[in-house]
Write a structure and sequence with these properties.
Layout: E1 3-7, E2 10-12, E3 18-25, E4 33-39, E5 46-51, E6 59-61, E7 69-74, E8 79-84, E9 93-100, H1 107-113, E10 118-119, E11 123-127
Parallel strand pairs: 2-11
Antiparallel strand pairs: 1-3, 3-8, 4-5, 4-9, 5-6, 7-8, 9-10, 9-11
């Protein structure tokens, strides 16, 4: 129901920061649980964090993201952002934003199942010196 377009990926040195953007259209993003996932070539897609609906929604963090990554929404722009700080070489991956209806998912389940109703196209993040 909602279409997602990602941007903001690129090359960053270890310890640096990036902010990924996910712009939505077709539906109001605040009606969806938002998840961020990543995938390394040859490996399964894995969760980064998943955020329940609303600005006061709780967030489920993968161990890899705790203390370094966070997500926030801009309702006026119908977009969501992933702020990545203190990046490590192991963070190198294609990053995807995703949206799931609360009737089908909670944030925890979304991250655990790596499931969503809509997916962005992915954006490459490369952390290298």
């Amino acid at each position: 129901q909602v279409q997602l377009v990602e941007s903001g990926g690129g090359l960053v040195q270890p310890g640096g920061s990036l902010r990924l953007s996910c712009a939505a259209s077709g539906s109001t993003l605040d009606d969806y649980i938002i998840g961020w996932f990543r995938q390394v070539p040859g490996q399964k897609r894995e969760a980064v964090l998943c955020n329940n609906v609303g600005e006061d929604g709780s967030t489920f963090y993968a161990d890899s993201a705790k203390g370094r990554f966070t997500s926030f929404r801009n309702s006026a722009e119908n977009s969501v952002y992933l702020q990545m700080n203190n990046l490590k070489t192991d963070d190198t991956a294609v990053y995807y934003c995703a949206a799931a209806k609360p009737l089908s998912m909670t944030a925890q389940v979304m991250c655990f199942m790596v499931g969503a109703d809509s997916w962005g196209q992915g954006t490459q993040v490369t952390v290298s010196s």
